[in-house]
């Protein structure tokens, strides 16, 4: 079901996303020394391309073969490793200096908290987990009042991080202006959670 949903989304349009890296990824990661990075839900590859262009050795994953083909085309010559995973079932091997989960939210059933905990487990000592997620939705999103998005504190608590093994670098919900399909605008908020591992997992 997960692959079918995202395949339908990507096959319906020649391009779904802007091709620009996510702004909070740039804000948080730009000052860091490049190392190894894992991009979860890489979509059409903008974040992975941005990271690789700054010297990161990137592994990028998505469930949609169409999205991965577009990402591979955008990343030609950059040495990015692409893998297809339904993260509810399989997860990339290894540990990384940066694990990035940008808007890893889905309208279809998805064990998100479990996946984010696996993301935390994939962070190497001294490495960073960066989670950016929708904290509110614009009126044209189709999300009714029954849809409740998490707070940054709730997502942070759901990671179940080991006491003393992590420092919280950031956990807030900045606002931004967004533009809808008909040119309409709205103010929305995004949760930004950045946590750094300070020692090996217990």
UniProtKB/TrEMBL annotation:
InterPro entries: Methyltransf_25 (IPR041698), SAM-dependent_MTases_sf (IPR029063)
One term of GO molecular function: methyltransferase activity
Record's keyword annotation contains Transferase: yes
Gene3D superfamilies listed in its UniProt record: Vaccinia Virus protein VP39
Span of domain Methyltransferase: 38-127
This protein's record includes keyword Transferase: yes
Keyword annotations: Methyltransferase, Transferase
Protein's name in the database: Methyltransferase family protein
